[in-house]
Design brief:
With 229 residues, the protein is mainly α. The chain has two domains: 9-76, no CATH class; 91-226, Four Helix Bundle (Hemerythrin (Met), subunit A) (Up-down Bundle). The chain contains eleven helices and no strands. Helix 2 runs antiparallel to helix 4 (55-76), helix 8 crosses helix 9 and helix 8 packs across helix 10 (181-198). It is elongated. 25% of the residues are buried.
Length: 229
């Protein structure tokens, strides 16, 4: 067996070492880095590019990796594993990139706090913690509303901005400069039917309800971001 080049002995040893480090398998990593295998890996790395594994080297690799394999299986028995149930939204995207459920440029236009809340809300939905997701989605919406409001009104540094009064003042602007009515209607709907009830400690969300809320929030955030430069 050739020692060097992709998919060969040295590549597999290095790849295995990197994976057990990434997975934080400390015991397996310690065994893998024992002196005998470490010396052998160093020896292989200093060999010629066209070198092939000798019978003696092959035996050392096999014996050492049999010990590592036994350790890996024993350590893996104590690791928790999670199986995520399917949602209406694609689970992998909820965990890694919930921003992709918004319009292309929406996420980058949102305030940093709203961005963080959307990312965490996606993971909460994926891991079946819908009430936490509900709180995060409503926080993101309110933070986006404050940014939107500040485009129409000058906000003092210590001014306390409340959801209801902000919408009322936006509605009362002159027709010529009044914000989008559909957007304000959606914000009022979320405030009245989701945000206000969520303030009460007895309110909890089911996984379907919070996905409905995610759809509403996504629509609002898209409309808000569309008016940002």
């Amino acid at each position: 067996m050739p020692i060097h080049s992709w998919g060969r002995v040295l590549y597999n040893l290095d790849h295995f070492a990197a994976e057990i480090q990434r997975l934080n398998l400390r015991v397996t990593s310690s065994v893998f880095n024992l002196k005998q295998l470490h010396v052998l890996t160093t020896e292989l790395k200093t060999s010629n590019e066209d070198a092939k594994l000798t019978e003696e080297q092959a035996k050392k690799v096999r014996v050492s990796m049999e010990v590592v394999r036994a350790t890996l299986l024993a350590e893996a028995d104590n690791l928790p594993a999670y199986m995520l149930s399917e949602k209406r939204f694609e689970v992998a995207r909820l965990v890694t990139s919930p921003a992709t459920f918004l319009h292309e440029h929406t996420f980058t236009k949102l305030p940093p706090i709203a961005q963080s809340d959307i990312q965490e809300a996606g993971r909460c939905i994926a891991f079946d913690t819908p009430t936490a997701a509900g709180f995060l989605l409503l926080r993101a919406t309110e933070r986006a509303l404050r940014a939107y409001y500040s485009r129409y009104f000058k906000v003092k540094k210590d001014e306390k901005l409340m959801w209801g009064p902000m919408i009322t003042r936006l509605r009362n602007k002159s027709k010529k400069s009044r914000p989008n009515k559909i957007l304000l209607d959606h914000l009022d709907n979320i405030r009245f039917n989701f945000r206000n009830p969520t303030d009460h400690p007895e309110k909890t969300y089911g996984i379907d309800e919070v996905q409905d809320l995610f759809s509403l929030v996504a629509d609002v955030l898209n409309r808000v971001a569309a008016e940002f430069p």
